[in-house]
Design brief:
Helix content: over 70%
Largest sheet: none
Number of strands: 0
Oligomer: single chain
Shape: globular
């Protein structure tokens, strides 16, 4: 499941966009808010106890902060695509390599803890679906060729399972499992909190968003 679900989530999202051709990404804001809450909660419930239980607290804290800084760095190139902001020049027909590389690194990192924390796959999946939908909308509305868009999506879908595969087979990752997991926590913390902050729409109260956030947290708790 940890290999299949992330691939299916991205590919089916792309097919959904290809068939239905939704134009407005605003429709997916509630799903994005739910995914941010679920991802944040499952990170806190599943990953935090392990790294602080098995590692030196100071070292764990350092690697969490490094993960946050790494994600900030990646977003200089992805322009925030990891949390629903895709800025592609629709008049440009060139393949968006920097967007692809930064998203691929992010997705590969997400896959590293899955080998030992299978429940995290549901958080990653729910996070990927709205992002893949929004990304697909922009790719298909740009002048990027359809074959290139499909190439982008297929490789992007494979990055998280690749991270899981590397985690299962590379001794270095297994030796420094706690530190690498802490790094991934930093990445996930940054992404999920940005999604939640941005979903507040200028800090205006929105009952629907509050409810989906609460549902996301409760679902993560009882998994």
């Amino acid at each position: 499941m940890i290999y299949i679900l992330p691939i299916l989530g991205v590919l089916l999202s792309f097919i959904f966009v290809l068939v239905t051709k939704p134009k407005n990404k605003e429709t997916f804001k509630l799903l994005l808010a739910f995914s941010g809450a679920f991802l944040l909660a499952i990170t806190v419930f599943e990953l935090f106890p392990e790294v602080y239980g098995d590692g030196d607290p100071k070292t764990v804290g350092v690697f969490i902060m490094l993960g946050i800084l790494l994600q900030i760095f990646l977003e200089f190139f992805s322009k925030g695509a990891e949390h629903g902001h895709v800025h592609i020049n629709t008049e440009n027909s060139n393949f968006p390599w920097m967007l692809f590389l930064s998203l691929s690194i992010h997705s590969l990192l997400e896959g590293l803890p899955l080998e030992t924390h299978h429940n995290i796959v549901y958080g990653i999946l729910i996070h990927k679906i709205p992002i893949a939908i929004i990304l697909s909308i922009f790719l298909l509305n740009s002048k990027v060729k359809l074959a290139q868009a499909i190439f982008f999506i297929v490789l992007f879908s494979a990055m998280t399972p690749l991270g899981s595969l590397l985690s299962a087979n590379i001794a270095f990752i297994q030796t420094f499992h706690v530190e690498i997991t802490a790094l991934v926590i930093g990445v996930l913390l940054h992404i999920s909190t940005i999604i939640l902050f941005e979903s507040s729409e200028g800090h205006k109260f929105n009952l629907r968003k509050l409810l989906v956030i609460i549902v996301g947290i409760l679902l993560a708790y009882f998994m």
